[in-house]
Amino acid sequence: MQESQELKQAQAERTERARSAILAGKFLVTRIAPQQWTVQNGDGVRFGRTLPYAVSLNGDYWACTCMDYQQRGPQILCKHIEGVRLSETAQNQSYSDINKEMQMNEQPLSDGSLGDRLSRILWELRQPLDMSRVKRRQAPGMGSVPYLEGYDVIDRANTVFGFAWSFDLIGEPVIVRWQKKVLAWNQQEKRKVPLIDANGNVQTEEVGLVYITGKVSVDLDGKFYSHADLGRCIFTGDTPEALDMALAGSATDCLKRCFRQMGEQFGNSLYDKEIAQNAGLEQGRENGQTNNPAASTTSQASRTTTAPIVRKYGDGVLVNGNVPEQEAYDQFKTKMGKSPASKDELRSWLAGQRSTHMEHQPAPASVVA
After folding, report:
1. Would you say the pTM of this structure is higher than 0.85?
2. Kindly report the CA angle at 131 between 128 and 135, in degrees rounded to 5?
3. Residues 311, 317, 323: CA angle, nearest 5 degrees
């Protein structure tokens, strides 16, 4: 009986510490996945001096990486877990209150006055980014980066702004072209070297960069709020298909960059290096969760260090971060059962696929360097 009373008192103390820290602004709680958070406490919230603690929920089991939980948990939940619980409860209560207010009004909140609609939009924009929306793609080199797909950004904008927004291009696209040396991996020198043709000349290929400037405008009862930015996309070759894909890619990039200025809902936090390391890694892995907190911590650590897919041609050249080239590479490997020997072989294969119409689905229009 006395032991039970001591546990209750110890738990109450930690709950009160968490509440005091939140009220004093000394807790920074960030959701990084549906059931995972980071908690930074103390002066580190203001000055970034302390590393955050990782808090997770698996079924009914809470876990934290702090020393207090490692020694007293799970019988006693540490102040970091309590901070997450209090923050989540406050957010859910706020969302519930807004829903009740909307139901009490004769008209939906979004159809009310400018002030009411603006309040709803601001509330939506302040919500944490749902990490299940985040995808990852291979970047030039060995790493991968998180991103939001174009259709996802458009869908979210329709939800937040109620279709009362527009995207307009400012001026004509700018297209820059130049000749780039073709490099190949030299096994003997352990580095990439320029390819030399039969005449002893360095082989080159034409590459280009498309710039597009645009702006996003949101209509709030006749008052327009705009954000402008620059989109860009690299392409290889002088074919119409390559340029067409680059124009579309730069327009999508411009759209996403314009919306990014509106904050969390449009992926602005993905430019934070710490968040970018893990964002999107949990996608599609929810079915593998366990109810064992210790196993969850180990599993989380192993997933964080999982290397991205590496695509490499037979000559040692890595496939770069452009989605069309990655799709073409995967398509070749699936149908041929092996990796293409070089980028030139992949281009030739794609040209053959288009000319003979052997596929039900069109192959990617070009391979982008």
Report:
1. no
2. 140
3. 45
Residue 254: name the closest of 210, 214, 209, 227 by CA.
Answer: 214
pLDDT of 336 higher than 50: yes
Each domain of the chain, given as residue ranges in start order, spans 2-103, 114-279, 311-369
Whether 89 has a pLDDT exceeding 50, the answer reads yes
Structure tokens at 298: 């180990």
For the beta carbon of residue 266, count every other beta carbon within 10 angstroms: 24
* pLDDT tens digits along 173-199: 999 999 999 888 888 888 888 988 888
Do 243 and 254 meet the contact criterion of CB atoms below 8 Å apart?
A: no
Secondary structure string (H, E, C) spanning 253-270:
HHHHHHHHCCCHHHCHHH
The DSSP bridge partners found for residue 216 are: 167, 227
User: Cβ(301)–Cβ(349) under 8 Å?
Assistant: no
- Structure-block tokens of residue 368: 């982008």
Return the number of other C-beta atoms located less than 10 Å from residue 195's C-beta.
17
DSSP 196: B
Residue 296 CB neighbours (<10 A) = 20
- Domain 114-279, what fold? Enolase-like; domain 1 (3.30.390)
Query: Count of CB atoms within 10 A of residue 4's CB?
Result: 8
Tell me, rounded to whole angstroms, the distance of Cα 120 from its chain centroid: 24
